[in-house]
Amino acid sequence: MRRIIFFATLEYLEKKGDVKHFSFPNFLLTFILMLVVTCSPKERTLFDEGKKWEEQGEKTKALYYYELSLRENQEFEPVLKRMGLLLAESNQSMATAIFYLEKYHRTKKNDLEVQRELFRLYLTTGYEKEALEILEEIRFQGKKEAVEFFETTYLCLTRPYKQKDYLTNLEKSPLASDPYYAPWVRACETK
Question: C-alpha angle with apex 65: 61 to 70, nearest 5 degrees?
């Protein structure tokens, strides 16, 4: 494939007659650099190794391999997501988790897992405006149960009045039994 692109480019330049303006060493250098940056399978290998460690419960080793993968390609989306979600589990890493999840979220707006984690992190750290933006995105996706749960959580955690009503609504939600959402209900109880 690489050879085809290279020779097709050369042939195109020869047909146009612009070969005199063509600097072969510069073209070759640019072409090689482009291939190295865009076609590196190493980032995938490192990501897979990190995923393996994560599945075994070795989060520190997983983060290490994810970091190595990001050194190969800073925009590698699967790593951005996994790094953000893993770091979000630690209260000391919330800012870093937000950084990785926001970077991923800019390209993948409809990932509910990332949306809900960003929503939780924003509410936890006091970024109400950003939490409302995520809530709007979820509304447009049309998932009624999720929208109701997120809205009630937002109101419960940010509005001191009617908190018992919000808590009752959260507990009645079908999502309340989901292990992921259970801490949200507890957070509302303790507020």
Answer: 145
